């Protein structure tokens, strides 16, 4: 394997190992699923049978004609609409962005608090974090599609959500990549100084994302909790930390289990999981006492109750808590707790997004709840299962994470433990 030096970086280049290792082959399969999903979604949006001028001339008052014309203009799947304001795209986007930025935040915080072992392993952790951020952007890009993004640039509306995100990510991502560069080139003092701005920007990502979603969530009456319960943003941050530590636990097992630092890293992750699960549990108890009662009723006692108690409460909090409550030398317990927090955290995002779909649209025009359709009454509960294309794209986003991380690791050996000097 040839080694080159560029800008202080040592690059290990072997094209075959870079592109055809086991991790990359798995990533290719997952990304191929995403490609199938994108094809499915585009076919539904733009190539479905729709109304034409001939049909409109023959029967202009046909109720079905209205739906067909709407399909021709707006398409289906992933669009913000009265039927399905939020989709699996939004779930995955929010999960990936918040969890990835959460990993970066926790690593930057550990550096500032002088956790030496985290400093040594920071490159790998930050790489997996930034890979998740890119996977989140990949998901939302497939939802917006190239046509929308093109017109976002050609006819910019600077108050729109995407334009609020753009400056943040254009700043945040280069800062994180530069931090990884400083770690790889052993410029530890500069890396520690940069940790504080990255810490602030990681919180900025969460707050700005919260503000953007709040603007859009205000379409639904149940979602006035975004303005009446502003500490809801802490739910996203705290729950993201739980999922972030889960990702870090699984990553530590995969990358460090045969190395001397494994024990110290896993014990630190165990303490972090225990801390943030406890904070999240306390938050949940307080939040549901004062949050919007209609929305809370749907989550706690409605059609989502089994997913809430078994998918979120049990997996994200109860089981991990008991697994990590006591110090242990059986690190498989911490790995299992990490897997549970990842799955439970995703269930929590799903519940929040799809639970918000459940109520009719708002009565902002003073005419009562707006109807989903001119020809039918507003429904008291609205839920549509994710389309298979959406599921494929979400699975494919995991391939994006694996590919980005593995390319970095193959080139720069980011999983290697690095000394401070």
Sheet of most strands: 2 strands, antiparallel
Compute the number of structural domains. 1
Mean of residue pLDDT values: 80
The geometry reads as globular
Q: How many beta-strand runs?
A: 2
Specify the structural class: mainly alpha
Helix content: over 70%
Write the layout of secondary structure elements.
Layout: E1 2-6, E2 9-13, H1 15-19, H2 22-46, H3 53-58, H4 63-74, H5 88-112, H6 116-154, H7 161-184, H8 188-217, H9 225-228, H10 232-256, H11 262-290, H12 293-301, H13 305-324, H14 331-356, H15 388-412
Antiparallel strand pairs: 1-2
Helix pairs in contact: 2-15, 5-6, 5-8, 5-10, 5-14, 6-7, 6-15, 7-8, 10-11, 10-14, 11-13, 11-14, 13-14
